[in-house]
Amino acid sequence: MSVMKEFTKGLWKENPVLVLLLGMCPTLAVTSSATNGLGMGVATMCVLMCSNIVISAIRGIVPKKIRIPVYIVVIASFVTVVDLLMQAYAPTALYEALGIFIPLIVVNCIVLGRAEAFASKNGVGKSILDGLGMGLGFTLALVALGATREFLASGSLFQVKMIPGWTVDFMLMTSAPGAFIVLGFFLAGMNAMNMRKAKKEGKSYKAASLDCNSCNICDMGDK
Amino acid sequence: MSDTENTPTIQMPDPAKLIVSNSPHIHSGQNIPKIMFTVVAALMPACIAAVLFFGLAAIEVLLLCTVSCVVIEEGWNKLVKRHPTWKDGSAIITGILLGMNLNAGTPWWVCILGGFLAIILGKQLYGGLGYNPFNPVLVARVGLLIGFPEIMTTWDKPELGLMKIDAMTAATPLGLAPGETFFSDVLLGNIGGCLGETSAIALLIGGVILLAFKLIKWEVPLAFLGSVFVITGIAHVVSPETVHSPFIHIFTGGLLLGAFFMATDMVTSPMTRKGALIFGLGCGVITSVIRLWGSYPEGVSFAILFMNALTPLIDRATIKKPFGYIAPAKGEAA
Amino acid sequence: MASQEINIPKLGIFLGALAAIAAGLLSFVSTSTAGAIKLNLQAKTNAALEQVLPAFDNVPGDDALEIASAEGWPVNFYIARKGGEIVGYAGEVITPEGFNGNVTVMAGLNLDGSVRTVIVTANTETPGLGTAITDRKVQKTIADIIKGGAEAIGLAPNTYLNWYAGKTAGAARWPIVKEGESINGKTGATITSRAVGGAVYAIGKTAVDNIAQLSKGAE
Questions:
Q1: Structural domain range at position A112
Q2: I need a labelling partner for B146 at 20 to 30 A (CA). Which of B103, B247, B321, C36 fits?
Q3: Domain tally for chain B?
Q4: What subunits touch chain B, counting only 3 or more CB pairs under 8 A?
Q5: Model's pTM, two decimal places?
Q6: What does the alpha-carbon distance between residue B193 and residue B174 come to, in Å, rounded to a whole number?
């Protein structure tokens, strides 16, 4: 894989939210507005990049037996750092909205997933690109979801009313069911697009199945 | 043609088209349009009561919902290149029931959005009639209730016989303190609420029609209404000043409409009699819990949707064993 | 792995060292952000107080006293001063009468104990119904952005909460008015309306009854 591919795979082909379906908890919970999606995405991206760098750098000296606890310590430290920094310097409203979900980045599968599947096997440079691409893909997906939900709910984007006459909010979209509905349509659209592309190229398209063979998080998938 | 005529081959059924399903397998002579139009007839008394109490606005809402449901269904059929299905009447029933779940003052765009939620989100995305796990009408109602809580809980005040256009607003009896509601009003329909919730008598007539034509299982409404009666009855005895009497609970809100017309939906309720009892009981318990302690005054729609989700499990648990069936001993593979 | 043996002391030392490094990093970040976080929290309380009080230059959070209302609810009073002179009070009370439980109401009071401004600082009411009573929400439109400016809008209006401005608590709670030009209640959110009205009354009544104590300040 070329260097550029390490970066771009997270944006579309292996998008963590829309293809790998990782990190559903923050995806569904905080995307009630575009701003929240952006805040969560950027916070996760910071943690992902930092943890990828450190884990890639120490991959030679970490005993294999305790690699998971080591990853957890590294990730948890960076999450706490991001949490404290946001508490201190991010706008109060954003921090309150993201609330408990910031500490929960620790258990976001994407971070641990990339640590185990990529950073622990590749060099620092590649791991930075991987973290950046995956983080950016996560952020883009969250912003897209948040923006769609916010727009369908109140006709506004980033808290700015785009359609002046829209006075009654459609609150279904900002509540939890709206998250599932919009994500469902996003996944369907993604599959439809890939299907069309495969048809054009004369290939058959099979939607990614959620089994061990099509997942590369742990070692089982490689075999 | 000529090829196959000369070389006789045994036509094997396409395994992909073979459907293995639970009973019933025996055809009762009923078909979808016939069933659907009997249901429409059963809905008529409640519709007429709604028009009597709420006037032209009620007709407007009912018509708008029905037309938008049918149009959206046909639009979707065009889009995905399926045959038109409006003649089977299911979209019409969805539309009427949706209208009965709204109040007379509902804005037109809410009716149309409701039609979209019911037909597309509630039914067609799952593959159309028969494949939907949830009752489409309730999907729409709950979607609108969460989406526009203010519009969906502002009720018009009923005035018998007046074909009025402008309306006063009134609280639904469940939102009032106990003692502010009178039983005779509740029974006749002189209360605020959705179009289909007003007249208990009209709904009971409709329910009897459905039961007489054996279109619904009596177990569902019985278990549903019975469990609500018992639970709210106990709560009323324990704390009469905060909880309505069980009679008020039975005859107000969407309970009768839900118990007879929506919990009994063939597609989304269990097939076995035992299953129907469990289903109705579950609906009743959840409804009572939401009414007594929940953050919404009414819980019928949430209860039925929740039990819809459990229907496949209930079916699996209560399926009849074949005659002579011996349960495998423990440890053996089933 | 070359050997299958598990060298527990070595693994323990490795993890311990890593944890120590992590702890060092965290303690460094924690100490360097502590100041900013404290300021943020203070700013949050102050932001709420600034909404209900006239301009002040003390820290009302440090100039507070608690008086129980007739219902037995503890009302927290904050005293706002400018140049040492008292310019107003703010009372905060938690009422359990909300539709979904507790509603925290803060009311700014004039020197005579009459209500100045009411805000709801915390609630769990039904979105769209109860929150119509409690929320003051500013909505910027695309037109505002294009025109530019329009930044400091201040306190967003809320018909129901504005009703209480200028009222002085009397012998009984205020009635809930749902129709007419000035209303403090809303069909479909009667219980929330009552809860907020009751909380404002508790603050106002306690202030009127204890105005002598309040005017002496917390000291």
A1: 3-147
A2: B247
A3: 1
A4: A, C
A5: 0.76
A6: 10
